[in-house]
Design goal:
Layout: H1 6-9, H2 16-23, H3 27-44, E1 46-50, E2 56-60, H4 62-77
């Protein structure tokens, strides 16, 4: 064909019935949506942190990660089909 593997090209998409169910408040569908975006949310939540000894390291800011997850849930529930 044109050199594009359609299976891999569509691997990152959520099925429409899952999105539709999540917008209606289905807990299982919302869990699938959250799992789909979990690695992206974790990537966005990485910050330079300090431990008790003053050492700096890169880690996930749990507060930021929780806020991003909440915002995603609100966006899914307010999505107009």
């Amino acid at each position: 064909m044109n050199g594009i593997n359609n299976t891999n090209a569509e691997r990152g998409l959520l099925p429409y019935p899952i999105i539709l169910a999540a917008t209606k408040g289905d807990a299982d569908a919302m869990k699938i949506v959250m799992q789909h975006y979990e690695s992206y949310i974790n990537h966005l939540s990485i910050r330079k942190l300090r431990d008790e000894s003053g050492n700096t390291y890169w880690g996930i800011d749990e507060d930021l990660r929780d806020r991003l997850r909440s915002k995603l849930m609100r966006a899914v529930l307010s999505f107009k089909v």
